[in-house]
UniProtKB/TrEMBL annotation:
GO molecular function, one term: cGMP binding
Protein's organism: Steinernema carpocapsae (Entomopathogenic nematode)
Ranges where the Cyclic nucleotide-binding domain occurs: 126-188
Name of this protein: Cyclic nucleotide-binding domain-containing protein
The entry's keywords: Ion channel, Ion transport, Ligand-gated ion channel, Membrane, Transmembrane, Transmembrane helix, Transport
InterPro entries: CNG_cation_channel, cNMP-bd_CS, cNMP-bd_dom, cNMP-bd_dom_sf, RmlC-like_jellyroll
GO cellular component labels: intracellular cyclic nucleotide activated cation channel complex; plasma membrane
Length: 188
């Protein structure tokens, strides 16, 4: 390996082979060294590509959205919101679990959701000390909704049909003037 590295990089002076078996050995050793070097460099390249797969996928989606908005003449404010959303997704590395759940049987999917979400539900004041059966049933009803900072979730006068649990970040209730903070709901 050492000799192959020296030969590939053309550093150092190696003695020239005199016999045909020495030539064969030099060729074989050089090929093994080149192959090993290619495998190492290729593996590093794959690791870098895989670590950037999420970012690359999101950027491809972003390019599609930009193209769509441009061809449909979407107003600038709405375009800004869409770009803000993708920036938020990129920074928070949100993973869409719908494709993963699609391939799992119902029982395994529910058990996995229970494993992921039961601690969060047990931390919510409303459900502290609740029966495990209730938590089990609630987990099946959970739907993930992702909101960006500044998104309006509901307004005064809207009929509430959902309950929101803040898993990360915070929820701020604003007065009608959109400047006065009425209260803030933290995680949980």
């Amino acid at each position: 390996m050492y000799w192959s590295a020296l030969t590939i990089t053309t550093l150092g002076e190696q003695p020239e082979p005199n016999m045909s078996y020495q030539n064969l050995y030099e060729i074989f050793d050089s090929l093994v060294g080149i192959l090993l070097f290619a495998v190492i460099v290729g593996s590093v390249g794959d690791m870098v590509a895989n670590s950037n797969a999420y970012t690359s996928n999101l950027r491809n989606q972003l390019d599609g959205v930009k193209l769509y908005m441009g061809t449909r003449n979407v107003e600038q404010l709405l375009q800004k919101k869409a770009l803000h959303y993708f920036g938020f997704m990129l920074n928070n590395r949100h993973v869409d679990d719908k494709p993963i759940k699609r391939y799992l049987p119902a029982k395994l999917k529910h058990t996995m959701q229970l494993n992921i979400h039961q601690d969060m539900l047990k931390d919510v004041d409303l459900f502290k000390g609740s029966d495990d059966k209730l938590i089990y049933e609630l987990v099946g009803k959970l739907k993930l909704h992702l909101f960006c900072p500044g998104d309006e979730i509901c307004k005064r006068g809207d009929h509430g049909k959902e309950m929101y649990i803040v898993k990360s970040g915070q929820l701020t209730a604003m007065a009608e003037d959109n400047h006065t903070v009425l209260f803030t709901i933290p995680e949980g």
